Write a sequence for this structure.
């Protein structure tokens, strides 16, 4: 199943998370900042959520936001680290010295 829809992502700076909804379910990616780096620390999904393509698409969109803001990305959460391993094109967003 291809996820082709335009994804609307809200950057909730107060809660330090990116937010989107799918079928009425809130999906969030928590983050923290340190010196022009964004640390992606957690993905919160509904209990019965299993749409991996949607999660990949969400991560891609968040990485584009980071790139626009000229931030380096430090993937802390294992699911996001796995994404970087699978999609080598995004490795330029990693800070120097970070190996995945």
């Amino acid at each position: 199943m291809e996820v082709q829809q335009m994804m609307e992502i809200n950057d909730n700076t107060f809660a330090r998370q990116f937010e989107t909804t799918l079928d009425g379910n809130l999906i969030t990616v928590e983050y923290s900042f340190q010196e022009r780096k964004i640390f992606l620390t957690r993905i919160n999904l509904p209990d019965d959520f299993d749409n991996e393509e949607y999660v990949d698409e969400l991560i891609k969109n968040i990485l584009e936001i980071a790139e626009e803001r000229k931030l380096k990305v430090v993937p802390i959460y294992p699911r996001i680290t796995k994404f970087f391993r699978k999609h080598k094109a995004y490795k330029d967003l990693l800070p120097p010295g970070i190996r995945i």
Notes: The longest strand covers residues 25-34.
